[in-house]
Amino acid sequence: MKHEIITLDGVQIIGMAKEIAFCKGQEGCPKFWSEYVERIIKPVFMEHKTPDAFQQAAIDNGVGEFGLCTCDIPNHNCMTCAEVNFGVCSNKTFTYVIGGIYKGGSVPEGMQLFPIFSGKWLKVHFEGGMKAFQQQYQKFYKEWLPLHPEYRCPNNAMTMEWYNGADIESPDYQCGVMIPIE
């Protein structure tokens, strides 16, 4: 898998958050993205309506560039947490955030700020666009990452999905996953 090391220091993510049961993650996250499209993309970019404060904050901060996964389990990392909880289809929940890098300004009702790990991140590029995202995601965590022990995720750090482009149906759509590394 194509990958690179990037540095993020002092970054906060602004976004919409939703609690989703681990056993409902593969359905719940895409459903939440549909809510994002209905609330922000459709009215502003398809219907050309004037953005409200929520929509304007989303536009100004690139909300939709990232999907974050985090939870309240202490002393863990998201890779281990996902493996344990998704693997047994746990009813425990995680917080899924559709977000962007916070550039300042007001945080409207319905959005929150999430500080993320400062330091180096492994950014992995998936092939095949959104249609292959779930398959590539599983392949990354179950096959690729175990073969690369040099990339260790610190405890209490969240992972992020990243998205770039407009045509999610295109096999060339750019997306992948990012994990903080020690």
Large-scale geometry: globular
What do the pLDDT scores average to? Answer: 87
CATH architecture: Alpha-Beta Barrel
Evaluate the radius of gyration.
16 Å
CATH topology, by name, is Multidrug-efflux Transporter 1 Regulator Bmrr, Chain A
Query: How many individual domains?
Result: 1
Taking strands numbered 1, 2, ... along the chain, how are they ordered across the largest sheet? 1-6-8-7-3-4-2-5
| Tally of alpha and pi helices | 4
Q: Tell me about the biggest sheet?
A: 8 strands, antiparallel
CATH level-four homologous superfamily name: Regulatory factor, effector binding domain
Helix content: 25-40%
Low-confidence stretches: none
Give me the secondary-structure category.
alpha+beta
**Order of secondary-structure elements:** EEHHEHEEEHEE
Describe the protein's architecture and organization.
The protein is an alpha+beta fold and 182 residues long. The protein has a single domain, classed as Regulatory factor, effector binding domain (Multidrug-efflux Transporter 1 Regulator Bmrr, Chain A, Alpha-Beta Barrel), CATH 3.20.80. 29% of the residues lie in helices and 30% in strands. It is built from four helices and eight strands, in the order E-E-H-H-E-H-E-E-E-H-E-E. It has an eight-stranded antiparallel beta sheet with strand order 1-6-8-7-3-4-2-5, with helices on one face. The radius of gyration is 16 Å and the shape is globular. The chain starts with a strand and ends with a strand. The mean pLDDT is 87.
